[in-house]
Specification:
Radius of gyration of chain A: 17 Å
CATH topology of chain B: Pnp Oxidase, Chain A
Largest sheet of chain B: 6 strands, antiparallel, barrel
Distance between the termini of chain B: 18 Å
Number of domains of chain A: 1
CATH superfamily of chain B: Electron Transport, Fmn-binding Protein, Chain A
Number of helices of chain B: 4
Radius of gyration of chain B: 17 Å
Number of strands of chain B: 8
CATH class of chain B: Mainly Beta
Order of helices and strands of chain B: EHEEEHEEHEEH
Helix content of chain A: 10-25%
Strand content of chain B: 35-45%
Structural class of chain A: alpha+beta
CATH architecture of chain B: Roll
Shape of chain B: globular
Largest interface: A-B, 48 and 48 residues
Oligomer: heterodimer
Distance between the termini of chain A: 22 Å
Strand content of chain A: 35-45%
Structural class of chain B: alpha+beta
Chain lengths: 147, 153
């Protein structure tokens, strides 16, 4: 098991993607007018890539311009000092091909914005990094500021 | 009630800060080597600014030092998929005044991750914006009228 310099378990790409399958909500992270922005979305995985639905606005703008952006999801218990966090980084694109659209439709995703059902955006998971902190590790570190 | 161009309910600054006070984990949003990234941290508020602990020499600390960064917190019900999200943007700095440090230590901030994290980082809440979400399913199944006004989270 690989441990990073801050004492957390480094997760493989496969493990990270499996964890992402367990949560319905993550955050799209993007630079907007050079300022860092993040907003939660309902997402799913399609061939290991992140897919979410959006109406107009910055998310779509980023996607249309094929920007490199990030996606983060986590599940953290601050009382027990356990949990995990996964960061996906890659370029984004609108899903426009009919066969791909049909598969995206089948994911049951929705945008929280009322009105139009919105477009499907895919974040290509070129880089997937994950960290996990388990209970046993947390106990070991309890004297060091955690727990 | 203010609504943004996406039709989402806008939360005023005061309500955003009240929601943050009820939450302990948020995400620092920062560019690392030109690519956006997010790092979850335990945090607390000090004079309406975000404060969290960091270890020396981390990529996060290098990226945030003096930079304008984002900080995001949300609470979303996984069943109803309704909830809220708050985004703070402002310059970050490592606390070095003894007064500030003494006050930061009194926050009893615990780091989520292990290891020694002697530095306290403050993100000035120059811009605070928040939104409320209601899932389409929840919004449709709302025959009780004022349920949407009852405050999620």
């Amino acid at each position: 098991m690989e441990i990073d310099r801050s004492g957390m378990e480094v997760l493989s790409r496969d493990t990270s993607l499996r964890l992402l399958e367990k949560v319905p909500v993550g955050r799209v992270v993007v630079s907007e007018h050079a300022l860092p922005v993040a907003f939660p979305v309902n997402f799913a995985l399609l061939d290991g890539d992140i897919v979410f639905r959006t109406s107009t606005g910055s998310k779509l703008g980023a996607a249309v311009h094929k920007a490199v952006l990030a996606f983060e999801a986590d599940s953290i218990d601050p009382d027990l000092c356990t949990g995990w966090s996964v960061l996906v980084q890659g370029w984004a694109s609108l899903i426009t091909r009919r066969d791909e659209l049909a598969r995206a439709e089948a994911l049951g995703l929705h945008s929280w914005a009322p009105g139009s059902p919105g477009h499907f955006v895919r974040i290509h998971s070129e880089m997937v990094t994950g960290r996990r902190l388990l209970g046993a590790q947390a106990e070991n570190f309890a004297g060091a500021g955690c727990g | 009630m203010e609504v943004d161009h996406n039709g989402l309910m806008v939360l005023p600054r005061g309500q955003c800060l009240r929601l943050l006070r009820r939450t302990r984990v948020g995400r620092v949003i920062v560019n690392v080597d030109g690519i956006p990234a997010a790092f979850p941290v335990n945090f607390s508020l000090l004079d309406e600014d975000v404060v969290f602990r960091s270890a020396p020499g981390t990529k996060l600390l290098a990226a945030i030092e003096g930079a304008v960064v984002g900080f995001q917190v949300d609470r979303i019900d996984p069943v109803f998929e309704s909830g809220w999200s708050v985004l703070i943007q402002g310059p970050s700095a490592v606390l070095d005044h003894e007064d500030d440090l003494a006050r930061a230590r009194r926050l009893h901030l615990r780091s989520w991750a292990p290891g020694q994290r002697p530095h306290f980082v403050r993100i000035r809440s120059e811009s605070v914006s928040g939104r409320r979400f209601l899932s389409p399913a929840h919004a449709m199944a709302e025959p009780y009228g004022d349920e949407s006004a009852s405050g999620v989270g």
